[in-house]
Amino acid sequence: MAEETAAEYHSKDFEWEELRLEVENDPSLRYHLTPFISSACSSDATTDEADAWRSFHRRHSAGKFFKERRYLLKEFPELIHSGDSIQVLEVGCGNGSTVLPILRAKQSTIVYACDCSEEVLKTTREIVATASGASLDNRLHTFVLDLSVYNFPDWLFCASCQRNSGSKHVSSSDSRDEKAGKLNAPYFLTEDQCCIGGVDFVTLIFTLSAIPFHRMSSVIEKCLCVLKPGQFLLFRDYGLYDMTMLRFLPEQRVGFCEYMRSDGTFSYFFSLDTARDLFTGAGFIELELEYCCITSVNRRSGKKMQRVWVHGKFQKPV
User: Full-prediction pTM beyond 0.70?
Assistant: First the structure.
């Protein structure tokens, strides 16, 4: 049943180019397309986005919005078929909706999950611990990190990689967000074996759009650094002209394709060209990049909604 649901979920219900023409020819939506002139006010507004997300997760700490993303295994089959044992780093894990299906997929998969909110990490651990089936929580390692500000902690890199990589890493003594006792050192890091990066996969699932645009390149470069050569970053996020973008009011714009909600949280909507420039500019090789266009139906009102997401798969050069 899950496989059938995933197949239906990912069908191309409409053409993005047709939606583009409809939006761009609608005078009432024209403000989304006009150039954005930044101001000191809009620039200052980007400084507290992590606090806004922490407040959001505190308000929804019961996991009310949890919905397991089983479709990811169909979109990214490498998570199932790559080797006997893999290590996955989920960046901005939220309440664990991505973590749980990845852990279920293979009993040998280890997941490292970070988020800027300790509250939401607690929710993730609770959801995983109470999930039906085999024990999953012993393969989940969580840590607090705002990647838009800080780098990954040293323990994701072996000693050799720490010395040889060109980036600076946050040690446990330097990171104000890292919680002692909440981390289990990755079993694959040893003094005599170079991890050459760290993990086999990095997943960025509806995370990058929550970061101010001017910080995205830095975040992607950090993700490249923590990957082993030849391994993959798996990306899924909001696409240009998604229904939620078109609902934002003119005064909520804080950049081109970038908006701020009333609670202070950000949302960016990616074109394929923007996503391509960001990832290839950071050093990734593009393998897959496309719009996923889905028509969903509100069960209560019966209203059809046109959703647009960007699906991407990128590889670290060997």
Answer: yes
Distance CA 248, CA 211 (A): 17
Q: Give the 3-state secondary structure of the chain.
A: CHHHHHHHHCCCCCCHHHHHHHHHCCHHHHHHCCCCCCCHHHHHHHHHHHHHHHHHHHHCCCCCCCCCCCCHHHHCCHHHHCCCCCEEEEECCCCCCCHHHHHHHCCCCEEEEEECCHHHHHHHHHHHHCCCCCCCHHHEEEEECCCCCCCCEHHHCCHHHHHHCCCCCECCCCCCCCCCCCCCCCCCCECCECCCCCEEEEEEECCHHHCCHHHHHHHHHHHHHHEEEEEEEEEEEEECCCHHHHHCCHHHEEECCEEECCCCCEEECECHHHHHHHHHHCCCEEEEEEEEEEEEECCCCCCEEEEEEEEEEEECCC
pLDDT in tens, 195-238: 556 899 999 999 999 999 999 999 999 999 999 999 999 999 99
pLDDT in tens, 108-144: 999 999 998 888 899 899 889 888 666 788 899 999 9
Structural domains for the chain: 2-24+67-315 (3.40.50.150)
**CA dihedral defined by 215, 161, 283, 148, rounded to 10 degrees?**
-10
233: tokens are 């970053």
Q: How far is CA 31 from CA 21, 214, 255, 286, 314, in A?
A: 15, 21, 12, 31, 32
Q: Give the angle 110-279-15 at the CA atoms, nearest 5°.
A: 100
